[in-house]
Amino acid sequence: MKTPLSSSSSSSSSSYIIRKARLSPYLFTLLAFIFFVAILYGEDFICILGQLDPLSSDTRPISPTKKNREKLPFAIGKTGTEEEGCDVFRGRWVRDVSNRPLYEESECPYIQPQLTCQEHGRPEREYQYWRWQPQGCDLPSFNATLMLETLRGKRMMFVGDSLNRGQFVSMVCLLHRLIPEDEKSMETFDSLTVFTAKEYNATIEFYWAPFLLESNSDNAVVHRISDRIVRKGSINKHGKYWKGVDILVFNTYLWWMTGIKMKILKGSFDDEEKEIVELPTEDAYRMAMKSMLRWVKLNMDRKKTRVFFTSMSPSHGKSIDWGGEPGQNCYNETTLIEDTNYWGSDCRRSIMEVIGEVFGGSKVPITFLNITQLSNYRKDAHTSIYKKQWNPLTPEQEANPVSYADCVHWCMPGLQDTWNELLFTKLFYP
């Protein structure tokens, strides 16, 4: 309680009280304004101060009607939202001779001989001159300097099968020209291949794990096994090599396509008596996706790291799919598929549905790179017969090139550079 004013000071204080009363409306207005601003923008101020992390401990899903103010690691801007008409995975291919290819095949010594189509006799280069044009916006130009500076002191790793290895090599080819010869190296250690940019103290790596889980196809060199077996609950067998990575890019699809069922091992490959069950491929794939998400949740720091998943890479083994002659495939194909709704029979929609189901119900922050539809149009971009053949061709094969054409992998430079442009876009402009 305030002490009453004494009579001796009443005359000198009366004028102060009057002045105070006159100021109080202004003071009240000021306080009200400050209070209003605090209510309206308080969360933003706290975010700026780094004291708010709405995703770190609160596992409740964020309402899609609320704007998520958490800034993703490495993000510096945005291309736009789907509400604004921007979906970088929907669009069309545009011929662009002025800006394509992004590098020359002969300039990148890191491309595997299975992907050097010009060196192995491909007679034309049309597949190199196409640029992806998204619907409603433009892809940011791939900035190799920005990418390398961002990787300074960090690790970027691609994990998966040979399609992901192709994307890894594409990324190396996009960056290596900025690095002096004596400041870069490429080494392979069993399942791990490491490109090092010494000046940047950075690595771009590829880890061979075609199923992500442990399998009998894990040997990076000798893995052509028809009777494939995957071990349940075994992602840590490979995952221990992924820890500490700052940007992680997963893929897995092709190796699951052995039929309608997949063999799953319960227990260990070292057990004398092995318990093996068969699951529908979709259920087995779902198991792997959930294992991957669980590993990411437990091992990746969402404040500092980014995780991506590249969707299935389509193959073009049946020309009848796009209106071609029966018995043919991607061999001698030099044009694109123009039907925007085209979906090849080699692509299992049920697998894409599994991905949508598992990712859609997860709170784990993984950026999905949906390269399937845009790659579906590119029957022209496969290595076909223009690659190193590991075994001598038989007279029958030489007489019928369709019989040994590779309609799974992609020539470089080419389509997979676009995958990395999309990766670049989602990394910096999500």
TrEMBL record:
Q: Which GO terms describe its molecular function?
A: O-acetyltransferase activity
A Pfam entry, by short name: PMR5N
UniProt entry tagged with the keyword Transmembrane helix: yes
Topology versus the membrane: Single-pass membrane protein
Where is this protein found? Answer: Membrane
Give the UniProt family note.
Belongs to the PC-esterase family. TBL subfamily.
According to the UniProt record, one GO cellular component term is: Golgi apparatus
The UniProt keyword set, sorted, is:
Membrane, Signal-anchor, Transmembrane, Transmembrane helix
Domain Trichome birefringence-like C-terminal, chain residue ranges per copy = 139-425
Note the coiled coil stretches, chain numbering: none
Which residue numbers delimit the Trichome birefringence-like N-terminal domain?
85-138
- Protein's UniProt keywords contain Lipid biosynthesis: no
Name-wise, this protein is Trichome birefringence-like N-terminal domain-containing protein
InterPro entries reported in the protein's UniProt record: TBL, TBL_C, TBL_N
Instruction: Give the species.
Output: Dipteronia sinensis
